[in-house]
Amino acid sequence: MSSLAIPAPGVRRQAFGGRQALIEKITGMGFCLPATTLLLLTSLVPLCVLVVMSFTDYELGALDIKSVGLANFGKAMSDPMFRRSLWNTLLYVAIVLPGSVCLGLLVAVLVHQRKRTRSFYEIIYFLPVTSTLIAMATVWQFLLHPRLGPINAFLQLIGSRQYAFLSEPSLALPTLAVIGMWQLIGFNMVLFLAGLSAIPRDIYEAAEVDGCSGSIDRFLTITWPLLGPTTMFVIVTTSITAFKIFDTVAVMTRGGPMGSSEVLLYAIYLEGFQYFHTAYAAALTVIFLVFILVFSVIQTFVLDRRTHY
Amino acid sequence: MARVELKSIAKSFGAVPVLSGIDLDIADGEFLTLVGASGCGKSTLIRIIAGLEPQTSGSVAVDGRTIDHLRPHERRVAMVFQSYALYPHMSVASNIALPLTMQRLSLWERLPLVKLLSPKRRRVMRDILEEVRAVAAQLQIEPLLGRRPSQLSGGQRQRVALGRAMVRHPDVFLMDEPLSNLDAKLRVHMRTELAELHERLKTTFIYVTHDQVEAMTMSDRVAMMDAGSILQLGTPTELYATPANIKVAQFIGSPTINLLPATVGEGGDIDVIGRRVPLRTALPAGTSATLAIRPEAIAPIGNAPLRDGQATLAGTLRRVENLGSEFILHFDVTGLAGKVITCRVPADHDVAAHGQVDLVFDVGACHVFGTDGLRAEPLGGRRDARDGRVRLYLNAGSAT
Hints:
Chain A has 14 helices and no strands. By secondary structure, chain A is mostly helical. Chain A starts with 10 loop residues before the first helix and ends with a helix. By secondary structure, chain B is an alpha+beta fold. Chain B is built from nine helices and 23 strands. Chain B has helices at residues 42-50, 92-104, 107-110, 119-139, 154-166, 184-201, 212-218, 236-241, 246-251; strands spanning 4-13, 16-26, 31-35, 57-62, 65-66, 77-80, 172-176, 204-209, 221-226, 229-234, 258-264, 269-272, 275-280, 288-293, 298-300, 310-322, 326-333, 340-346, 356-362, 367-369, 375-376, 382-383, 390-391. The longest helix of chain B has 21 residues, at 119-139. Chain B starts with a strand and ends in a 9-residue tail after the last strand. In chain B, 40% of the residues are buried. Chains A and B meet through helix 9 and helix 10 of A and strand 6 and helix 2 of B.
């Protein structure tokens, strides 16, 4: 008999065709089962529970539960805290995404040209990625402290006025964005470095012979277009990571001052785990997921078409 | 139109010498091939001419002008790479146009968006596109101009790479193993096309290959390289008929030349497996030497009697390769265990008749190399101007 994947040829196959096909089907399903079970248990079932819960008035510990239809979503739309946190999150993404992608690319191009010191710079820039952001947030809090922090000490030294980075409403979110960029640049740099290494050296040499020898020309004609697929991936991962900002807000500002650094995940956390409005938090989470889904779909379909050769 | 002169070019990567003292004078419009096994430095040499690699010492001059200080695109050379190195994100037309847009448009006129502000740009681009079309027509790739390189076959990519080189009207074409990535049939076809292209353009071609057939079929002159220096420079015929070095003899020609260990007897005669070959060289008596015989210069003995200047070896037929138009016969040499001699004979040759036979060869068609690998010229002969062979008029002696 042949193996399961390759049907036996000839008469036997015809005679046992139906049974053979059935066996193959069952075997195939058997192979899929572990992964499907895991996916169901860890993602799909909780997601369904979440969606169902978002249509109810459930609160943690409540004994009865009843459907409220779309009321939770209606409440979210008119909730000033939610609208503020959504706006803040989008603003945060709008700063972190271009900042960390452009700087990551710049650092990658610069590091790529180094020969002996390359691994040194790679480690330096990658260190923030390996550190725990909660711990690093505490360090940043000290660095940015209005009176004790070295950053303000430096500003004083050069004669500038001092800033309360985390307690001035207009500065809190941009400061968090800078910390977010600091953490993401190293990761994006590594991805861009991988993309840069994949560009054949021949192409640069051909460009050199063809007169494309200035660094701006070389970047615009060769490097940037050929990094297209990498860039797309970096943009998608960066925007999703930025959209999920939580740790720095929870540790450093707790949404303050005056709600100026309230972001989506922090709002969900407050509603769900501080105020125990579980159903309302579920509705907010559904909105959050829809945003992430829309981001990925737009980026994948629009950018994918333009960056594959 | 350009004459290229290389003066004592040397190159080393760190402590590793790659090229040492290369002198080469390439005439205007010549097709010169650098041939050699991989690692012999031929690619490094062509990259030095292109300006992609700086030489450690020595200088490159085109038409008497030193170009060492010039960047690659200022040297008026075009290069075709083994991988073709096409820009994968550009159409064929843009690929071919790139050298011209780089030449004729300023940086501002090439920047995205900003370029739209330039009034002159459209006119220049129209001219460029016309030239691109003309080149594409020459190479018969006009219908492909809108495609991306990934949508092309290997042969088509090769043509695009050629087009990108031709569109600039360079002084010198540099080609670094351009046919190596093609399949065997296409390679034969492109060989002819390249040779014809050279005839049409009448530009200097410097061509790098490890394939001796390409070197033999296309070149005006061939420079055979080994371990960073040129072993022999000459026409394909010269390299084939009078190899200056045993390595040249082995590299050029297919099937490979037969090499037999020999000793130099009293009076400079050559002894092979105890048989005296009527061939004298200036090598000192008692030293060892190598006798080299091309496969077509040796054949099983027929009914004809041994002529003057012929000698024989004994061998047993081991294998016959039928190439259609000819047979390649493999003989075990009697008296030399493990040594095989190949003979190239016409297909009408009566193979079945052979068991143990005598193989007869023309002494004048043999080459003798000393222990240093250098050619030892036969004495007492006369070189025939038609094919470079030395005709000997000695007695056959006592081969058999």
